[in-house]
Each structure stands twice: as structure tokens, then as C-alpha cells.
Write a structure and sequence with these properties.
Blueprint lengths: L8 H5 L7 H15 L8 H17 L2 H12 L14 E2 L8 E2 L2 E3 L9 H8 L18 E7 L1 H6 L1 E12 L14 E3 L8 E4 L5 E5 L8 E3 L11 E12 L8 E4 L15 E7 L6 E3 L2 E9 H6 L1 E6 L5 E6 L8 E4 L5 E2 L2 E2 L2 E8 L6 H13 L5
Parallel strand pairs: 3-8, 4-12, 14-20
Antiparallel strand pairs: 1-2, 5-10, 6-9, 7-8, 11-12, 13-14, 15-16, 17-20, 18-19
Helix pairs in contact: 2-3, 2-5
Length: 375
């Protein structure tokens, strides 16, 4: 039964037999990140473990292969060519009846369960892909931006600096120093990929020496150390819409990391964090603030000037006999969002004098007597 396998792929991935495609993908992502050879150099055990989980995921993530595998597990002699589960398939050339071993490539099977996408997202290998490789959209970049309370309420423009992986401008993403030549990679013999496999599977991954390009420079680029890419800060001017709050996200299409030639760039995903304000407090679209009044203003009435979120001043009339904690509404001075604008609520805080002179105390006593107030 050449090509048969007796491995328990579900056990290797740590998932149940009825695990959803999403659960399988999450399990593989976690294990691949832990055991990948690039993350465990010179660790043969980790390399072997990575080969096993990659083999398992290549089967369990594909609906047809998973059905075959599930049937084989229940009945190993269920009629798959007289043997067990196999990845062999007929060749298009050579002698009649010949078979070749199925090779899984992280790029070629990108549409099968997201296998290629997962590999690329976990280990970001620099440089351009070799000719003939399938083109994939650039990676999305997530970035948190802290903005002022006023900008969140009214909107505005904010300039930010976002770290991104970009093509090296010095070597034009080749990885070679200007004027140097390229030579065939001795590790992958120019294919851009290396293979490993067990149990009838041959799994292909980008060559770690040339990073999938198939060639290496005779003299690596000094700016990017031969990777073809550099980590740099990109300046972006954001137009912040009015009414955003902490946790609000903004997607800027095509402003993420670049992809291979001809493929679209990824997106830039902005998450806002609003700074607290010492004067205003937000509730929905309404703004709340507290202003102090002295005892004379509260007792006799007054006119005060109150700041708005636009940093302007509005006039507010305080009627005689205003009680502590009284709230006044200032229409249309709150947060603006989707054509709607909230109000501003002003609560007064009556402040008593810390101390009185002898004359002031006498005047207060006379007032209490006239008003028949006990003290």
C-alpha cells in the first residue's frame, strides 16, 4: 500500500474530527508559528514536527481529501486503488500508467483552506517571488492612532508615521548591491522552493536561502542585507471623520504593504484611540461639562461664558437662585456625526468662600437674620 498513511491528522493538529474549517486553520496557524524551521534553526525535532503538521493541514483543510481521509480512517480498504489514502495522481507525460507524487506548494494551493495565505502571514519572507509564482494581494497593515478629543468630535486631518515593509529602493527589490550579479541559489537549484515530505506527501515551501527568488546576489545589497525589502516609516495624512470614538476603525484601501508586480497592495486599517479631555465628557453625541459659580452669581444671577469643543465661547444666562448641580442645555454644540449634532450640557458647581473677614461675616449674619435663616 505505497502512499498509505496511518497518521492521525486530527491528533497532530489538536482538533476534533468534526472541527470546522476555521478551527482547523487556527490550530495550524498556532502550530506552524511554533514549529517553523525559520523560528527554530538547527532544531531537527521542530523541523520534523512542522513537516507533520503541514502534511496534516494539507489534507484536513481540503474538503475532498478530508472526505477521502475520513473514509480511509473508518475503513482502510475502502477502495482507494486497493490501498490507503494517497496523494499520488496521474502525470501528463512520461510512460503510460506512470504516476507522480503530489507536491503541495504554499503558493499553488493558496485557495485550498488558505494554506498559502497562512504561511505567508506567519513568516513574512522578503523579496519578490520567482517568475510563474501566483500573485497574491499585499498584506494589510493595522495601526492604532491616538487623536485629541476635539478632532474626534469635529473631525480633521492628522499626520501619522506607519512602519511598513517596502521594496528596497537601493537594489530595486533584487537583494543585490548595485552593479553586482545574480547567481543560481545552491540550496534550491534556482527553483525558489525546497521540499520535504512523509507518508506520500511532498510539501514545498519557499527556499530560506534565496527567500523564494531562485537566485542570490554575488554581493548583497548593503541597504537591505540582501532581502530585497526594508522596514521603513511611511508618512500618511489621515482625514478623520467627525464623531469617531475609541475603537472606531477606518480602512484605507491600497495603502497597506505592496504586493508582487501586478497584484494590488493591501489595506491600511486604522483604529482610533481618543484622548480624554479635562473639561468635556462624552455621552453619545452629547457633551457634558461643569463650570464653577460663586455664591453671588448663583444667588443674584449672572451671565457667564462657556467654552465649546470648537474652542469658542458661548454666553449662558444664570438665573437668580440657581441651585448647585443645575444643568443648562446649549443646543447643537455637541458631537457631529452623519449629519446629526448633539448638544452641550453645562452643570454648575456653586463654590463657597474658604474664609470670610469679620465684616463679611457680619454682613452674612445680617442677611441670615433678614431672611430668617438659622445658622
Amino acid at each position: 500500500m505505497a502512499g498509505a498513511t496511518t497518521k492521525d491528522y486530527y491528533q497532530l493538529l489538536g482538533v476534533a474530527e468534526n472541527a470546522s474549517a476555521d478551527d482547523v486553520k487556527k490550530a495550524y496557524r498556532k502550530l506552524a508559528k511554533k514549529y517553523h524551521p525559520d523560528a527554530n534553526p538547527n532544531d531537527a525535532a521542530a523541523s520534523d514536527r512542522f513537516k507533520e503538521i503541514s502534511e496534516a493541514y494539507a489534507v484536513v483543510s481540503d474538503d475532498d481529501k478530508r472526505k477521502q481521509y475520513d473514509t480511509m480512517r473508518k475503513n482502510p480498504f475502502a477502495g482507494f486503488g486497493g490501498g490507503g489514502f494517497s496523494t499520488q495522481r496521474p502525470t501528463t507525460g512520461g510512460r503510460p500508467g506512470a504516476q507522480q507524487e503530489g507536491n503541495f506548494n504554499f503558493e499553488d494551493i493558496g485557495d485550498i483552506g488558505g494554506f498559502g495565505d497562512i504561511f505567508s502571514s506567519i513568516f513574512d519572507r522578503g523579496g519578490k517571488r520567482r517568475k510563474g509564482a501566483s500573485q497574491q494581494r499585499g498584506r494589510d497593515v493595522e495601526y492604532m492612532v491616538e487623536i485629541s478629543f476635539a478632532v474626534a468630535a469635529r473631525g480633521g486631518k492628522v499626520s501619522i508615521s506607519v512602519p511598513m515593509t517596502d521594496d528596497c529602493a537601493v537594489c530595486n527589490a533584487t537583494g543585490a548591491a548595485p552593479g553586482s550579479k545574480m547567481q543560481t541559489c545552491p540550496e534550491c537549484k534556482g527553483s525558489g522552493h525546497v521540499q520535504f515530505g512523509q507518508g506520500g506527501f511532498a510539501v514545498s515551501r519557499p527556499c530560506p536561502q534565496c527567500m523564494g527568488r531562485g537566485q542570490i546576489p554575488t554581493n548583497p545589497c548593503f541597504a537591505c542585507n540582501g532581502t530585497g525589502q526594508r522596514r521603513e516609516n511611511r508618512q500618511v495624512v489621515l482625514s478623520v471623520p467627525s464623531g469617531v470614538d475609541t475603537g472606531t476603525q477606518l480602512r484605507l484601501s491600497g495603502q497597506g504593504e505592496k504586493a508582487t508586480t501586478g497584484a494590488p497592495s493591501g489595506d491600511l486599517l486604522i483604529t482610533f484611540k481618543v484622548q480624554p479631555d479635562t473639561f468635556f465628557r462624552r455621552e453619545g453625541l452629547d457633551l457634558h461639562c461643569t463650570v464653577p459659580l460663586n455664591i453671588a452669581q448663583a444667588t443674584l444671577g449672572s451671565k457667564i461664558r462657556v467654552r465649546t469643543v470648537d474652542n469658542k465661547k458661548v454666553s449662558l444666562r444664570i438665573p437668580p437662585g440657581t441651585q448647585p448641580a443645575t444643568r443648562f442645555r446649549v443646543p447643537a454644540q455637541g458631537v457631529e456625526k452623519n449629519g446629526r449634532r448633539g448638544d452641550q450640557y453645562v452643570q454648575v458647581r456653586v463654590e463657597m468662600p474658604d474664609a470670610l473677614t469679620d465684616e463679611q461675616q457680619q454682613m452674612m449674619a445680617d442677611f441670615a437674620s433678614a431672611a430668617d435663616l438659622k445658622y
